[in-house]
Amino acid sequence: MSSKLERLQEEIRQQLGEALLGMRADLGELTIDLAAASYVQACTQLRDAPALRFEQLMDLCVVDYQGYGDGLREGARFVVVLHLLSVSLNQRVRVRVGCADDELPVVASINPVWNAASWYEREAFDLYGVVFEGHEDLRRLLTDYGFIGHPFRKDFPVSGTVEMRYDPEARRVVYQPVSIEPREIVPRVVREAGYGDLPRERNQPGA
């Protein structure tokens, strides 16, 4: 581990204190886990502390851990992940915070800390159903306003829940339950016996 990464780890420990639930350095990258109750405060410290100065939010996304590790993983199902960059100090950190309730995942909005988070949080709400408390305009961003469910969740059906078609009598597009029967397609590789074998005469000595 580089001395720069070690210094960053120590500085984060000092600055975040009990808000820091865990930290791991792997492949030259640092990942930290934050307590949901201290999420916004800790992010503010990551931005403002002179030795950290993570002034830029590069990305915000959500991970659905349902079934991860054959279901043996412990912890929150939905985890919000941030990627932060300090332009001035040339350092990066990955931040994770879990949503306490798997049925209704809620976490505070960090839009007041980095205003670039606004559309990222709307996208995460749309695709995963994570509610960002305090967001001023939390609406769907990619799916239609009448869309049902959150399509990036692992339990969302591949065929969806509704389909739309043009109704010539109503003269408009209407929604109806999806007519595709759910099925699971397992790829199969079918080969003839001896596929890829060399001709017999080539295997003979002196051939």
Structural account:
By secondary structure, the protein is an alpha/beta fold. It has one domain (3-203): 2-Layer Sandwich (Beta Polymerase, domain 2), CATH 3.30.460. Helices cover 17% and strands 28% of the residues. The chain is built from 3 helices and 9 strands. A 5-stranded mixed sheet has the order 1-2-5-4-3. A two-stranded parallel ribbon has the order 6-7. Helix 3 links the parallel strand 6 and strand 7 (131-133).
In short:
The protein has 207 residues and is α/β, with parallel strands linked by helices. 17% of the residues lie in helices and 28% in strands. Strand 8 and strand 9 (172-177) form a beta hairpin.
List the helices and strands and how they pair.
Layout: H1 3-16, E1 20-26, E2 29-34, H2 39-48, E3 56-64, E4 78-86, E5 91-98, E6 106-108, H3 117-128, E7 131-133, E8 162-167, E9 172-177
Parallel strand pairs: 2-5, 6-7
Antiparallel strand pairs: 1-2, 3-4, 4-5, 8-9
